[in-house]
Design a protein that fits this description.
Structural class: mainly beta
Shape: rod-shaped
Number of strands: 8
Strand content: 35-45%
Radius of gyration: 27 Å
Strand order of the largest sheet: 1-2-3-4-5-6-7-8
Largest sheet: 8 strands, antiparallel, barrel
Length: about 260
């Protein structure tokens, strides 16, 4: 019954986040999957128990504003323990806030959650609240997709089970996720969305590089795409259209 309640809570929390992120008038959100390792506390597994176990998870995030998001996630691991026959199922549910740097891939997050630990011998089962902190990086793979890695530490806050011993679990995770909701904004219309654009406000029609910054192939100060004379020799004075000036109208450019 307890496990059913915990799984139901996870589904409802993720549904709330994803529903907010994917609604017809919603802000942009993220959904994704994660795989990695749980490095369990020795007090949880015993001195001869697992030093690392496979961790599987799902997560969702709803954008609150520039850089900020509210997330919910669930992680599951099966760990071997040395003080009782069989294994332990570890289900960790977490929610909190995440902050991403606009000019780089780094993010940090913090929050809290509930971890349920169920043994083959059910008399040892326990669950606890925990506080959590994580950091990592996201790497764009197009306008909507990205990869991420995260290191995360969960510290229990109560003393149910294990004779009251404190438990600190560490997760090392890799994830793949995609954005939902409205298409990413591109305020200057240069084909590079605002999240990745290093030169916002590029004039309409100017050609840009992968960072969203205008190109100027002949170095005359008039951006490619707006330059009517794109191959002006270096150093020649040009007019507003990028063409060489001929101040005296003799048919010879001022720079010759």
């Amino acid at each position: 019954m307890k496990r059913i309640l915990l799984v139901s809570t996870t589904v409802l929390a993720l549904a709330a986040v994803l529903g907010a992120a994917t609604g017809p008038a919603a802000a942009e959100g993220e959904i994704g999957f994660e795989v990695g390792a749980l490095l369990p506390d020795n007090d949880l597994v015993g001195s001869d128990g697992d030093s690392g176990s496979l961790a599987l998870g799902v997560r969702g995030l709803w954008n609150l504003g520039p850089g900020w998001g509210w997330f919910a996630d669930a992680k599951y691991s099966l760990v071997d323990v040395d003080y009782t026959p069989g294994n332990a199922d570890v289900l960790a549910l977490r929610t909190g806030l995440e902050f991403s740097l606009h000019d780089g891939p780094w993010f940090v997050n913090g929050g809290g959650g509930w971890v349920d630990t169920s043994f083959d011998q059910s008399s040892l089962d326990f669950d606890r609240a925990f506080a959590s902190f994580g950091l990592g990086q996201k790497f764009e793979a197009g306008d909507r997709f990205m990869f991420r890695w995260e290191l995360r530490v969960d510290r229990t806050l109560s003393d149910e089970g294990l004779g009251g011993a404190d438990v600190t679990n560490v997760y090392a995770l890799l994830g793949y996720q995609w954005r939902t909701g409205a298409p990413p904004a591109d305020s200057d219309g240069d084909g590079v969305n605002d999240r990745r654009d290093k030169c916002p406000g590029t004039p309409r029609g100017a050609r840009v590089d992968e960072k969203g910054c205008p190109r100027d192939g002949d170095g005359d100060g008039v951006f490619d795409g707006l330059d009517k004379c794109p191959d002006t020799p270096a150093g020649w004075p040009v007019d507003a259209t990028g063409c060489p000036k001929d101040s005296d109208g003799d048919g010879v450019a001022d720079g010759e």
